[in-house]
């Protein structure tokens, strides 16, 4: 009965929102959502969905649990350092009008990290930076740009001073960064991607998807990049056989789309 209940929940969620939970790893998704509906006092996925369809706050809580909005600035700092010292300057030598995308941006720490680095390199004013997520609640937090002090623990002190204003235990991102990021809602598995990106940052998201879903997404990311463009993934998301997606390793967790052969 439990499997039937979850299967029906998957179907109803897809009909209601176009989110296809069957493309997420079942065991961990089921475990997280069971914990949520039990905590909320529901006895089954069916009763949980019925309530969720009527209550937007509950629906946002479902999205939050489904997507695990855990993020921080400068996550894995040594990877961002190499983006700052090597890869963005390399891309800028080809064009100072870069087109960058933070995919599954959660509550905004990642696109703001990228924006700070681009600003320091003198690239932000002339470039395009888009950030997308499936969770509208997370996007609203990203647009507000207010964070607890713990989120900033890896931000270099000079950047904290320059790009944040502190009030009590929270830090607000400066408007000089906010105005350069365009946020929009997007379902990576379902929606089409824009193209001609120089850099796509998509970190700590692929771990939740099935192998089939990952395979499809790497193809979509590859098509969205310019030849020579870069895909920056999370520290547990090494791409095996990157050549099948027209990628080649550029550095640890950074992949370059191969240039077209003439």
UniProtKB/TrEMBL annotation:
Which CDD domains does this chain map to? AdoMet_MTases
What does the organism's lineage look like at the top? Bacteria, Bacillati, Bacillota, Bacilli, Bacillales
* Name of protein: protein-glutamate O-methyltransferase
EC main class here is transferase
| Gene3D superfamilies to which the protein is assigned, alphabetical | Chemotaxis receptor methyltransferase CheR, N-terminal domain, Vaccinia Virus protein VP39
SMART domains (alphabetical): MeTrc
Q: PANTHER family per the record?
A: CHEMOTAXIS PROTEIN METHYLTRANSFERASE
Q: Which domain of life is it from?
A: Bacteria
Swiss-Prot/TrEMBL catalytic activity = L-glutamyl-[protein] + S-adenosyl-L-methionine = [protein]-L-glutamate 5-O-methyl ester + S-adenosyl-L-homocysteine
Q: Output the SUPFAM superfamilies linked to this UniProt entry.
A: Chemotaxis receptor methyltransferase CheR, N-terminal domain, S-adenosyl-L-methionine-dependent methyltransferases
Instruction: Report whether Amino-acid biosynthesis shows up as a keyword of the record.
Output: no
A GO BP term here is: methylation
Q: Which UniProt keywords apply?
A: Methyltransferase, S-adenosyl-L-methionine, Transferase
Q: Where is the CheR-type methyltransferase domain?
A: 1-260
Q: What is its EC number?
A: 2.1.1.80
